[in-house]
């Protein structure tokens, strides 16, 4: 967030079928690693398009996944950026808006240089959440 980069433009929102496909990739990655996750896909405004909760995932994970995706979409950057700011002592960042999540696992979904939505994952550590989210987004390229 400290770099002076131009924010991503908004694109046509992700479709339900693509959201399901993306969530399926995330579930496959989590399953391959023996993890259980909730995966949320939002449109660029942060509104929920699709949610999937794997069996035996902790009960709070679905809410966390949605808020991670919403944060990544609305701020057009990964939630890890907020985590890094908090780690650097800039805790004020958590006061920007209710529901802002400063934990890895929320990643914008970008197509042709435009944000079409975001994915949020929850169920493991922040690092594990980020691995699952990034693996799904990488499948789009």
Q: How many domains, in number, for the residues?
A: 1
Distance linking N and C termini: 24 Å
Largest β-sheet summary: 5 strands, mixed
- What is the total tally of β strands? 5
Beta fraction of the residues? Answer: 15-25%
Helix and strand element order = EHEEHHEEH
Uncertain runs = none
Computed Rg? 14 Å
> Helicity level, as a percent range?
25-40%
CATH topology value: Beta-Lactamase
- CATH top level assignment: Alpha Beta
Molecular structure report:
The protein has 141 residues and is of the alpha+beta class. It has a single domain (9-138), classed as Haem-degrading domain (Beta-Lactamase). Helix content is 39%, strand content 20%. The chain is built from 4 helices and 5 strands; from the N terminus they run E-H-E-E-H-H-E-E-H. Strands 1, 2, 3, 4 and 5 form a 5-stranded mixed beta sheet that branches. A hairpin with a 5-residue loop joins strand 2 (38-42) and strand 3 (48-53). Helix 1 (16-33) packs across helix 4. The longest helix is centred in the N-terminal third of the chain and has 18 residues, at 16-33. The chain starts with 8 loop residues before the first strand and ends with a helix. The model has no long low-confidence stretch (mean pLDDT 94).
């Amino acid at each position: 967030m400290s770099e002076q980069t131009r924010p991503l433009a908004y694109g046509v929102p992700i479709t339900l079928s693509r959201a399901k496909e993306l969530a399926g990739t995330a579930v496959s990655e989590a399953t391959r690693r023996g993890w259980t996750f909730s995966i949320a896909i939002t449109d660029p405004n942060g509104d929920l398009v699709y949610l999937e909760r794997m069996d035996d995932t902790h009960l709070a994970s679905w809410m966390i996944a949605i808020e991670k995706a919403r944060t990544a979409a609305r701020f057009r950057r990964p939630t890890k950026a907020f985590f890094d700011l908090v780690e650097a002592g800039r805790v004020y960042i958590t006061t920007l808006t209710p529901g802002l999540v400063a934990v890895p696992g929320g990643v914008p979904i970008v197509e042709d240089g435009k944000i079409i939505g975001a994915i949020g994952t929850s169920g493991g550590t922040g690092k594990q959440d980020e691995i699952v989210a990034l693996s799904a987004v990488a499948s789009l390229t």
